[in-house]
Amino acid sequence: MDIKRVGDTPWYFTAVYASPDPMKRRELWDELKEFASTHNKPWLIAGDFNDTRFPSERNKSCNETNRRSARFNAWIDDMQLIEVEFSGAAHTWSRGVTPETRQSGRLDRALCNGEWGVRFETAKGLLKLEAKLRKELDEVMEKEEILWYQKARVEWLKNGDRNTSFFHLSTVIKQWRNKVVAIRDANDSWIFDKELVKAHFVNFFTKLFTEESYPHHSVIPNDIFQELPVRE
């Protein structure tokens, strides 16, 4: 649409509803790029682009979605388009009713060219900065996810879950399992105090391995580990 209003600069508006077919989307990107080469007025493009720009814009990612995002971002950069700030839900599309089948993403957005005028230069600069910082944040979060994934030593990972809290909790649980927080004394009473637990261990083994009470061969358990022959 060619928008004209008395007293204002004319501008173009394009409503987008991109195909779910990646090849057809690329044809649309080429058509819009060709239009931009012959029109230099302010231009706003908005709608369902059926593509995402960053991993945070999807609840699940894979190599294919990452490649499509890279192509989409390359097209935006080549067109010198700027993302318009928005408010509302982070993801504008979803389907599936269970955690296993649920998919969601931010497919809707608005882009404008650099011809909107000097009055928008500051805002466009901030939007560019936001895009740069968002990309850096995604990279940091991905590295953090890999770190906790390695620490948790899990054997599976759903693509794009970015469930860092899960991996963190996994390592914490492992630490809990590896800690002695209480023991029972000779009277079958629980000892929780850290210093008392340490003292109980020291006293037990001191008494066990003193010269006077060194354990006789007959009292050492012989039904747990493989027995060794007695040396003559």
TrEMBL record:
Domain (Endonuclease/exonuclease/phosphatase): residue spans on this chain: 13-119
Organism superkingdom: Eukaryota
Name under which the protein is recorded: Endonuclease/exonuclease/phosphatase domain-containing protein
Organism: Spinacia oleracea
